[in-house]
Amino acid sequence: MPVITCIDDLKRIYRHRVPRMFYDYAESGSWTEQTFRENTSDFEDIYLRQRVAVDMTGRSTASQMIGQDVSMPVALAPVGLTGMQCADGEIKAARAAEKFGVPFTLSTMSINSIEEVAEATTKPFWFQLYTMTDADYVSRLIERAKAAKCSALVITLDLQILGQRHKDLKNGLSAPPKLTPSTIANLMTKWRWGIGMLGAKRRNFGNIVGHVDGISDAADLGAWTKESFDPTLDWNKIAKIKEQWGGPVILKGILDAEDAKMALNVGADAIIVSNHGGRQLDGALSSIRALPSILEAVGDQIEVHLDSGIRSGQDVLKAVAMGAKGTHIGRAFVYGLGAMGQKGVEEALRVIHTELDISMALCGRRTIEELDRDILLIPENFEGRWQG
Ligand code: GLV
């Protein structure tokens, strides 16, 4: 096994092993990809304060997210088509998360179904819900997540309409892949992926196929999802979903202090400051830049998490020290999964944990509770001053 020292090591192997169309799916932002790029580069504008001669023994990265114990403040974010990055990808990622003691979030647009992941794991996972115009289907999905004992519902709010990612259109993205001459040529170089896929439990969208009338293949499904995301989603509907669910609710896709206040009013347990990994509104602020104003507006009344741009334990440290109660990783675990399956996700988590632990110690802190802005050097104008 190669020596893995950072998330980029996993990304290099991932790129080599996974079919181009799925690599491109994960590695794209919308339109010019400005927000996608700045999600990561903006972390570099924040510096850490090195402190010395502090007793470093007895360190721990353990914390809580929505009252649930986590071995570090990092959850696996919902990523569509994870089971196309690696055979049974959702099951493998969920098992890695369980082993590491961090939450796994299953996407509505997953390959392995809610039931398959529940059967393959022993601890509750979180379920991410997309709201569709078919209210009965959404209601059945919520009941299925309840039956599977999911311990939180993550409602995504920033994808009522899909942002355009150029490469997906050019690649003709589908699950399973459509066999065009260029796809076949590319698949022939990905034998490891192909062998795995031959043995996969499932190669289509497990939460949808068989649960929605008339959906049997990828072509139907593409058309269905385009028509099905609910363009009328509003705060009243969110309140109704919350009521049906009856358990912890996390609202994902908040990037503005006004929306954070709405999330608070609706009684969410947590919000995720997110721009969907730069995949939706290109030209929006990076999540880490949006975080301070949201914390200022609601941070003392609701748990605030962050996703989009986390590629290292130092990024986790910066977000948490700034005031986020937790972070979510998407691409960082997908690279590991595509590179080497469950072991790769475990490696991604190990890398992030090591970086978090060592950086925390070198800042003179031993526990997550001790982290605060005092360890950060944040540029004066980090949030930006915008004309009113
Ligand atoms: C779906 O969540 C996507 O970003 O493609």
TrEMBL record:
<dbReference type="GO" id="GO:0005886">
    <property type="term" value="C:plasma membrane"/>
</dbReference>
<dbReference type="InterPro" id="IPR000262">
    <property type="entry name" value="FMN-dep_DH"/>
</dbReference>
<dbReference type="GO" id="GO:0010181">
    <property type="term" value="F:FMN binding"/>
</dbReference>
<feature type="binding site">
    <location>
        <position position="252"/>
    </location>
    <ligand>
        <name>FMN</name>
    </ligand>
</feature>
<feature type="binding site">
    <location>
        <position position="25"/>
    </location>
    <ligand>
        <name>glyoxylate</name>
    </ligand>
</feature>
<feature type="binding site">
    <location>
        <begin position="330"/>
        <end position="331"/>
    </location>
    <ligand>
        <name>FMN</name>
    </ligand>
</feature>
<feature type="binding site">
    <location>
        <position position="107"/>
    </location>
    <ligand>
        <name>FMN</name>
    </ligand>
</feature>
<feature type="binding site">
    <location>
        <position position="130"/>
    </location>
    <ligand>
        <name>FMN</name>
    </ligand>
</feature>
<comment type="similarity">
    <text>Belongs to the FMN-dependent alpha-hydroxy acid dehydrogenase family.</text>
</comment>
<feature type="binding site">
    <location>
        <begin position="307"/>
        <end position="311"/>
    </location>
    <ligand>
        <name>FMN</name>
    </ligand>
</feature>
<dbReference type="GO" id="GO:0016614">
    <property type="term" value="F:oxidoreductase activity, acting on CH-OH group of donors"/>
</dbReference>
<feature type="binding site">
    <location>
        <begin position="78"/>
        <end position="80"/>
    </location>
    <ligand>
        <name>FMN</name>
    </ligand>
</feature>
<dbReference type="InterPro" id="IPR037396">
    <property type="entry name" value="FMN_HAD"/>
</dbReference>
<feature type="binding site">
    <location>
        <position position="128"/>
    </location>
    <ligand>
        <name>FMN</name>
    </ligand>
</feature>
<feature type="binding site">
    <location>
        <position position="279"/>
    </location>
    <ligand>
        <name>glyoxylate</name>
    </ligand>
</feature>
<feature type="binding site">
    <location>
        <position position="274"/>
    </location>
    <ligand>
        <name>FMN</name>
    </ligand>
</feature>
<dbReference type="Pfam" id="PF01070">
    <property type="entry name" value="FMN_dh"/>
</dbReference>
<feature type="active site" description="Proton acceptor">
    <location>
        <position position="276"/>
    </location>
</feature>
<keyword id="KW-0285">Flavoprotein</keyword>
<dbReference type="InterPro" id="IPR013785">
    <property type="entry name" value="Aldolase_TIM"/>
</dbReference>
<keyword id="KW-0288">FMN</keyword>
<feature type="binding site">
    <location>
        <position position="156"/>
    </location>
    <ligand>
        <name>FMN</name>
    </ligand>
</feature>
<protein>
    <submittedName>
        <fullName>L-lactate dehydrogenase (Cytochrome)</fullName>
    </submittedName>
</protein>
<feature type="binding site">
    <location>
        <position position="165"/>
    </location>
    <ligand>
        <name>glyoxylate</name>
    </ligand>
</feature>
<feature type="binding site">
    <location>
        <position position="276"/>
    </location>
    <ligand>
        <name>glyoxylate</name>
    </ligand>
</feature>
<feature type="domain" description="FMN hydroxy acid dehydrogenase">
    <location>
        <begin position="1"/>
        <end position="381"/>
    </location>
</feature>
<dbReference type="InterPro" id="IPR012133">
    <property type="entry name" value="Alpha-hydoxy_acid_DH_FMN"/>
</dbReference>
<keyword id="KW-0560">Oxidoreductase</keyword>
<dbReference type="InterPro" id="IPR008259">
    <property type="entry name" value="FMN_hydac_DH_AS"/>
</dbReference>
